[in-house]
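Comment thread on ticket #2218

A.B. wrote:
> Attaching the input chain for the structure job we discussed in standup.
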Amino acid sequence: MTTRLGRRHFLAGIVAGTAVLAFDPCKRSWITTAHADPPGGIDIPSLDGELVVDTASLAEAADDFGHIVHRTPIAVLLPGSVHDIRKLVQFANHHDIQVAMRGQGHSTFGQAQAEAGVIIDSRTLNTIHSVDASSAVVDAGVRWLDLLTATVAQGLTPRVLTDFLELSVGGVLQVGGVGGHAHHVGFVVDNVDELQVVTGEGHLQTCSPTHNADLFNAVLGGLGQFGIIVSATIRLVPAPTNARVFQLSYTDLNQYVADQNMVVMDGRFSYLEGQVVPAPNSGWMFMLEASSYYTPPNMPDNTALLSGLSPDAGTTIQEFTYFDWQNRLAPVVAFLRQIGVWSLPHPWFDVFMPGSQVVAYVSDVLAQLTVADTGNGPILFYPFRRSKLERPFVTTPQEEIVYLFDILRTAPPVPSVVNAMVAANRTLFEQARDLGGKRYPISSIPFSQADWIEHFGTQWPIFLLQKEHYDPGHVLTPGQGIFTP
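C.D. wrote:
> Ran it. Output below, let me know if you need it in another format.
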């Protein structure tokens, strides 16, 4: 049964079996006396939602999809309104408490956790407020699957989507949002018209490219450091009805990259991704995966779409509805959940590589990598165009063609194996970094503050100034470790 807090005391919880009744700002400690009205207890602001402190809620907030890092908060806020978030953040500033927003918990390395802080569970703010011909206004806790379902019913779609649709809008907008449409329109963060944000000082602000633009650009891809996104206006376009999907197989890495470079620049496909896949006997092959969207009677021209491409291991062509193609991972994920794989540790490795270095880097990585090293997880490997990206803190290599390279590892629940994979991720990252690569911050790669300073490069002084401006108390999103020496 969930324990609920009313107005009287802040953070009534269970710590090692002891009831925490209030917060003592003088001693900087929790009051754990059983007295009904302990001296020094701090009243909390009135809330439309609830603070919960039951063991199950705290345990869920202390975990994520990676199942590697566990930082236990002292309470979880189930906001009943945006104003609950504003009040909590203001309270946190007054009493030096750290706060993080958690959506669907799909981070892999504790990014949305807050040790002894408060987690805001965005799932209670999940309303789609409006959908019109050009945009949708949604709460941060709305899943992309629910938004797509609503928009496709009206013949519309977001311009870019991630592969996995069971993520929250707010969570994706904090990190970037990569997907197969990025070579045309950038990342998810590049396709937002307006935000409502609670800053690190607890101020509710509206921002857009023309109003409070500094905040708008800082928060999108800002890793939760400057404000909490509470609602977003997502750009929409007319939705096609069908997707013709091409899977081109290669044994030669150089040819695969050459063909990917060709199609990413000429933009012939609506969607473009790719993977490294196990070869039939041993080693690795490469699959260029692309689709052309259409609505009959207009049909794709297969000959034109495949012109100039040289797959040496076969081509397959399949037909999907547009919605089913975007939601293609749903049956796979359902199966992984059923057999228990979804709940295993996931020490993911995710980097962006400059196109000029990607063949050398991937060749070296694959020469040492086995299927066992991935736990049968997929390896994503595809390009996008840097010129399509607009947000200053979404950091990628300084070349026009950039490749996403992800080893989406699954590990057995054995600490030594998980730790070995995380250590391997760090080694692979250092090799990527030395070639101009950048980390995509959803990954399980140990990072120090020095690493973050190098990661942001010339943007670091601006990042630091924006932090001091919008979150001077450093209360927001400590799990990223950006300001941990």
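A.B. wrote:
> Thanks. Noting for the ticket: The chain has a mean pLDDT of 93.
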